Amino acid sequence: MADGLDSPRPSSTLRRMLVPLALAQFICSFAGSNMNVMINDISADLGTTVQGVQTAITVFLLVMAAFMIPGGKLTDRWGRKRCFVLGLVLYGIGALISAVSPNLGVLIIGNSILEGVGTALLIPPVYILTTMLFSDLTSRARAFGVITGMGGIGAAAGPLIGGVITTGIDWRAAFVFQALIIGAILVLSRGIVDPVPPDPARPFDAVGALLSAAGLVCLVMGILQADTDVVLMAILVVVGALFIMGFLLYVRARERAGKEPLLSLSLFRNRTSNLALVTQNIQWLLLMGIAFVVSAFLQVVRGYNAIETGVIFTAATAGILGASLVAERLTAKYPQRTLITAGFVTTLAGVGVLLLLVRAWTSAWAFTPGLLLIGIGLGTMLTPSVNVVQSAFAEERQGEISGLSRCVSNLGSSLGTAVAGTVLVAGLTSPDRAYALAMTVLAVLGLIGLVAALLLPGTPDRTPAPR
């Protein structure tokens, strides 16, 4: 084991290193949701549509998911801190390009591509470094509680902060805000120490990276075509499935040849990790799907402006923040399976309340109880799910599992926006019915997550999967 892990670091040093890592997760999650309240402003300014903005949001989340596994593997070759800093730089450049974009195409290049790739490089190191630096389960749970809590707050507070900036200044200023935060993180990251030196000789599976990325892109882009071109949707989904199948066959052949693949199939032999990955995927699917559906409904149907929409979302932000603040105590008191299960039950209850109250009551207050419950539910289970996955593998496998874990979470985010957004946009001619249908689809997917949580073993399996 490298120096720095054998002897305990002062707690103040660890806290200083945790600050930029948590802020990085915050800003990346913020970027995934703050555009939800800018739908009308961006559409009018750039001459596009609600579907165009939905595409930009989804592509951003999709690029993150598609390149998260390669990003995780590159941390072994380039070093965790170097990948973190490079990702921040790319993200900041993308934010500045987005701020001056004259049309949707340039916005997609800046926000969806550059910010997406930057996020894919910087997020895996956040979780790898946290796992390495905080060696015992309690301190690691506390650290993950801070990081995932900041991520959840960023996603939930994105609409409010974005709404305030958009209404008070301009939607472009929200991207300048992101660039400023990135600059602050770069300054704070100077104190981060990579506990394991990079291995430049570590092989990188470029073919596997291309196959996996192509498969994920085709699958999600196919879902986005569901309301406009069913034939194209079917073609993209089938092509995406073939790419994924080809990726798995290629990985198996590479492993049999004794070569290191992009993603070892042995990672999927850990039942505990597999189930926790399902819960992670659906948690972020619910968070981003609900954020898009409610934001679009409030702006396009109810006529609320950006800041009004953001204020309504403070209920979800408060719920996530409150649950995150007690994450450490909850983890010490209850099994992680119990917390994840309770989180899904509470979140599904919130979706049910949203469906009932919004239909019966036209006031903006109708959204508050449901969003609060959703925030509490998500805040309760985000940390345990991550901790279960990361703690299931040994230190030398953190690059792989971190990339897979973040890929699964961000794929959930992109699927949430794509699936729920497509259902909503397709039915805007009958908005109340479309809103109810989109929320019902999310609730059904949430039930799948609840089943996965119930199947988690009571005692986590921390035995590393064999190489």
From TrEMBL:
Gene3D superfamilies: MFS general substrate transporter like domains, Multidrug resistance protein D
Highest taxon of source: Bacteria
Transmembrane segments annotated in the record for this chain: 18-39, 51-71, 83-100, 106-129, 141-165, 171-192, 204-224, 230-253, 274-298, 310-327, 339-358, 364-386, 407-428, 434-457
Primary location class: membrane
UniProt-listed Pfam families: MFS_1
CDD domains (alphabetical): MFS_MMR_MDR_like
Keywords: Membrane, Transmembrane, Transmembrane helix, Transport
All residue ranges annotated as the Major facilitator superfamily (MFS) profile domain in the record: 17-461
Matching InterPro entries: MFS, MFS_dom, MFS_trans_sf
Keyword Acetylation: no
Membrane-protein topology: Multi-pass membrane protein
Keyword Cell membrane tagged: no
PANTHER family, per the entry: MAJOR FACILITATOR SUPERFAMILY MULTIDRUG TRANSPORTER MFSC
Name of the featured protein: MFS transporter
